[in-house]
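Pinned message: reference record for Secreted protein
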Amino acid sequence: MSRRPLLLALAAASLLLVPLPASAEPREVCGPHTAEDEVVRVFARGAGESALLCGSRYYGFRRIDWRTVSLEAIARTLASPEPPVYDERSNTWIHTGEVVVVLSAGDGQVVTARPVAAQAVPR
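Predicted structure (tokens):
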């Protein structure tokens, strides 16, 4: 009796039992069970850095409308040499470039980002 058919059958069966690679499912970014203080990305900002945390509906990743803002637009805005504007009322720095990025003045974390408001067209 030949062992070859048995070995081929076992090899084929083992292929069916191999788990899918981790890349088969995308990593969940700030899902419902992700902590507010989990870092999504750290952006270069002049000589410093600004972290984007998962946050809540009031700040961070969960605060940003991702239909209108991208991570790359935030990165390019913070890397821009344009000086930010300080808002004393909210103790934040406002960076304007491709998008508007609001940073906490205390720790430099991203509070929110939004599209740049459309300029009024003169009539």
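Pinned by admin. Summary line: Strands lie at 39-45, 48-53, 85-87, 92-96, 99-104, 110-115.
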